[in-house]
Amino acid sequence: MQRLAARFASALAIRVIKRWPGLYRALNHAGPDRSIAPRAQPILTPTLPCLAFARAVIARTSLLALAQEQAVHIVDLGSGDPELWVTLLRGLSQGPDGPPHLKLTCVSAKRDVLDILGHALVKEAEIMGVPFQFNPVNVSLRELTEEMLQLRSGETLAIVSMLGLHALLAEDDRVDAHFGMIKSDSVKDCKRVGEFLSIIRSASPRIFLMVEQEADHNTTRLIDRFVEGLHYYSAVFDSIDAAFGGSCSEERLALEEMFGREIENIVSCEGLEREERHERLARWAVRLTRARFKPIRLWLSAMEDAKGTVEAHLRDGYKVATERACTMICWHERPLLAVSAWSC
To answer: How many whole angstroms separate alpha carbon 59 and alpha carbon 342?
Structure first.
């Protein structure tokens, strides 16, 4: 608890210091890392099984949705996760009719993420004998256009977003925050998200899979974000403590630093600078329904396979709850991640 309190105290102090830009710059503060998820995933996998489970659900559900297709195109919206796509490559290579032609488009603002992923997948595809094409798109989600995806007729398309879509909610809402114009339980229209979902829908994917933090950090009032953040990250830090016990290993410190930057962004930033705008699935469902997406029930077999993949870790506090098109990955009774599936 002391570690978590220190993170929130630091975030509040940074918020105060930002009132004096000169002092803030003099302290050489680097600011929050806006590409947390892709960089951190290799660390998260063994120590926070919730992400390993989400990855397993995505991989297995994708395999079931794309079975027996001859040409498959998968769009990775920012995860850049080699382990996820290597798992899928191996699964596709074992199809009864042989492997399909697979194209993977990865969207990332970080060139090194694309280079690492491309190298790993090309090598794995050669080993597995899978016809493979890698399409790196070195832009942020805000800059993405449909032309960049290089869609072709005859391809069966799947789109996957892991822990990145909430950044599109960033906007200059400081006036709303000052006057309290937006109710905390409302689903505010966001032009950029609407445009982005329109791009996805126009591509007519077979399936759109989304993983997001199950938290409400997109309210305009600081006090609301602060209290919600305390509850959410208390569960996160508790799960870290359970994984590491009393040790202060380099891996634990890296995890706490990563989540500390998320806390800092939620508490100390406003307007476009505040990108960690996590919303609960109920709100995402409203946005996706407005964009004319329909929920898909996640396959029971995919869930069981995913549980088997991380069975050793889904104990001592972790729980999985499945409802219709959604799976919640929880620490005790607190949902941490929501995995959902959608179609046009």
So the answer is: 15
Q: What is the CATH number of the domain that holds 332?
A: 3.40.50.150
Question: Could you give the 3-state DSSP secondary structure of residue 23?
Answer: helix
Backbone φ and ψ of 299, nearest 5°: -65, 135
User: What's the CA gap between 212 and 162, in Å, rounded?
Assistant: 6
Q: How many domains does the chain fold into?
A: 1
Q: Are 48 and 233 in contact (CB under 8 A)?
A: no
Give the whole-angstrom CA distance, residue 90 versus residue 107: 22
Quote the tokens at residue 243.
């994984």
Q: Which of 315, 306, 338 has its CA nearest to residue 52?
A: 306
337: nearest Cα among 59, 5, 84, 58 = 58
Per-residue tokens: 251: 């891996």
Q: Is residue 92 part of a domain?
A: yes
The DSSP bridge partners found for residue 160 are 76, 209
Task: Tell me if 10 is assigned to some domain.
Answer: no
Its domain, for residue 250, covers: 32-343
- pLDDT, residue 303, reads 66
Q: Are 108 and 82 in contact (CB under 8 A)?
A: no
Q: Is residue 23 part of a domain?
A: no
What 177-186 contacts at long range (C-beta under 8 Å, 24+ apart), as own/partner pairs, is 177/220, 177/221, 177/222, 177/270, 180/220, 180/221, 181/220, 182/219, 182/220, 184/216, 184/219, 184/220, 184/221, 184/224
Nearest to 53 by CA among 322, 325, 320: 320
User: Residue 186: its pLDDT value, please?
Assistant: 72
CB contact set of 95 (below 8 Å; sequence gap of 6+): 67, 68
Residue 11 lies in a domain: no
Answer whether 43's CB lies under 8 Å from 254's CB.
yes
Question: What pLDDT score does 36 carry?
Answer: 37
**Cα-based torsion angle of the residue sequence 176, 191, 165, 17 in order, rounded to the nearest 10 degrees:** -30
Residues of the chain with pLDDT under 50: 31-43
How much is the CA Rg of the chain, to the nearest whole Å?
Answer: 20
